[in-house]
């Protein structure tokens, strides 16, 4: 079933954090009422902090956050009360077997239960009323983008007709109509789809259009969403038999790609980038200042160099690096980029050291904090290289379904430096796709550790 969206995940996660805070606030209110002190007495600190943990455990078990719906004002009251009563019942059981029940204040326990329950309900009602008043309740529906051939397939017509009853929003709908302007129209549609940031992209494109617009449609693989399409079994494509069937609005589709990192992993990764990136920038700032002074003193030209590269969702970003080449020998253009090679005369002596040790990449920490890049991810390639290799390597553009990284799985496994053969680039892409499909915070930590251990200096870096 394809039903969840990122905004839904955000809403539930915020309620989870809010519930913890409010349950602690309820314990504080109970202490003020019972003991006339802001902090609970020492003997009540354990139940104060155990209560939120038990509550969350019960809520997860009974799927208490799954019922939240700002459109219908469904706050999951029954599950909320079940979790609260279950929490305090467990606390009393623990107290009994620990033989400390006689030390418990029944008034404090009752005040804490009532105050916490009131605050939990007030949070839900307040947030949902505010969302409905601002007209934002519908933002928490899954966002669906459609792209189909003309005439519109019946299954797409049925999907659009069921959008309201199945509570999802169609944020973009493009119908491919062959003609003189079809290419430009399709490119504009794909740009609009990226801007709309759909949770699900549904393709219903016939075989002839897939062939006719193959280069443009390949860009859909860079959109960070679930990608599904209608079956082509009637057109003799036996490969569809092995595909995964999914249901959207009660209709069957074939899954072609899953959203990277799921609905929640993206903010975990963003938190990781902001915290670790900020720490790295603070620790390395004196070192980066010294490099900047050395670059300025060793050759004429700016300290930093910005190169256009494709980033998340295939959008163009400006990637920062310490300048490592002589200004008058830098011949790169957006249409043509010459990769650095061994003994490249364009590279300054200091630049050769910076590139060999990957220290020229340190300014990309600013890209990370700005949100253009991540600490770990597929390395961003120059736009000219992308245009070249996308025609040579199947699925090449899918590496842009996540943010590019300063370091990556391919780099720590030795696939870095000049890609003078298609096989070298293919290995990079295979490693990038492995990372995207198997991402976890622990894999990121492993890659960063490997980078610190042996990833800065490599024989292929020049």
Your description of this structure?
The chain folds into 3 domains: 6-137, no CATH class; 141-257, Rossmann fold (3-Layer(aba) Sandwich); 265-455, no CATH class. Helices cover 47% and strands 12% of the residues. The protein contains 15 helices and 10 strands. A hairpin with a 2-residue loop joins strand 5 and strand 6 (251-257). Helix 1 packs antiparallel against helix 4 (106-133), helix 3 (77-97) packs antiparallel against helix 4 (106-133) and helix 9 runs antiparallel to helix 11. The two termini are 48 Å apart.
- Secondary structure category: alpha/beta
Strand count, sense and barrel status of the largest sheet are: 6 strands, mixed
**What oligomeric state is this?**
single chain
The counted number of beta strands is 10
Walk across the major sheet and give the strand order. Answer: 2-1-3-4-6-5
Query: How far do the termini sit from each other?
Result: 48 Å
Radius of gyration: 27 Å
Order of H and E elements:
HHHHEHEHEHHEEEHEEHHEHEHHH
Helix proportion range:
40-55%
Average pLDDT, all residues: 84
Taken from the alpha-carbon principal axes, the silhouette is flat
Overall number of domains: 3
How many helices does DSSP assign?
15
Low-confidence stretches: 233-242
Share in β-strands:
5-15%
Which features would summarize this protein structure in a list?
alpha/beta, Rossmann fold, 15 helices
């Amino acid at each position: 079933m394809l039903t969840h969206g990122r905004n839904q995940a955000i809403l539930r996660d915020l309620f989870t954090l809010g519930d913890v805070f409010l349950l602690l606030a309820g314990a504080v209110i109970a202490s003020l009422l019972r003991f006339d002190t802001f902090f609970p007495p020492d003997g009540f600190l354990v139940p104060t902090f155990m209560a939120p943990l038990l509550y969350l455990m019960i809520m997860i078990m009974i799927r208490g956050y799954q019922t939240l719906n700002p459109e219908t004002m469904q706050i999951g009251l029954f599950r909320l009360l079940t979790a609260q009563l279950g929490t305090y019942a467990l606390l009393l059981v623990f107290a009994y077997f620990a033989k400390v029940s006689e030390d418990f204040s029944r008034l404090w326990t009752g005040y804490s239960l009532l105050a916490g329950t009131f605050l939990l309900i007030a949070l839900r009602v307040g947030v949902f009323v505010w969302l409905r008043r601002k007209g934002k309740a519908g933002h928490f529906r899954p966002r669906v983008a459609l792209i189909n051939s003309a005439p519109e397939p019946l299954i797409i017509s049925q999907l659009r007709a069921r959008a309201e009853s199945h509570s999802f929003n169609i944020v973009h709908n493009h119908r491919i109509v062959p003609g003189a302007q079809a290419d430009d129209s399709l490119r504009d549609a794909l740009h609009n789809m990226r801007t709309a940031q759909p949770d699900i992209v549904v393709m219903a494109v016939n075989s002839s259009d897939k062939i006719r617009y193959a280069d443009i449609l390949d860009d859909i693989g860079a959109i960070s969403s679930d990608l599904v399409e209608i079956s082509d079994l009637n057109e003799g494509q036996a490969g569809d038999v092995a595909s995964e069937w999914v249901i959207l609005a009660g209709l069957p589709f074939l899954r072609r790609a899953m959203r990277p990192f799921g609905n929640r992993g993206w903010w975990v990764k963003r938190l990781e980038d902001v915290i670790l990136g900020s720490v790295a920038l603070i620790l390395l700032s004196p070192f980066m200042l010294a490099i900047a002074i050395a670059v300025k003193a060793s050759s004429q030209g700016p300290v930093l160099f910005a190169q256009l590269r494709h980033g998340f969702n295939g959008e163009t970003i400006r990637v920062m690096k310490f300048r490592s080449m002589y200004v008058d020998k830098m011949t790169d253009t957006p249409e043509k980029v010459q990769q650095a090679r061994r003994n490249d005369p364009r590279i300054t002596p200091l630049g050769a050291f910076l590139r060999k040790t990957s220290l020229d990449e340190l300014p990309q920490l600013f890209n990370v904090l700005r949100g253009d890049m991540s600490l770990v991810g597929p390395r961003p390639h120059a736009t000219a290289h992308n245009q070249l290799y996308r025609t040579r390597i199947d699925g090449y553009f899918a590496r842009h379904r996540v943010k590019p990284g300063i370091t990556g799985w391919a780099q720590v496994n030795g696939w870095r430096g000049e890609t003078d053969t298609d096989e070298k680039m293919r290995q990079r892409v295979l490693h990038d796709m492995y990372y995207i499909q198997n991402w976890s915070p622990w894999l990121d930590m492993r890659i960063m550790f490997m980078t610190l251990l042996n990833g800065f200096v490599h024989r292929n870096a020049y």
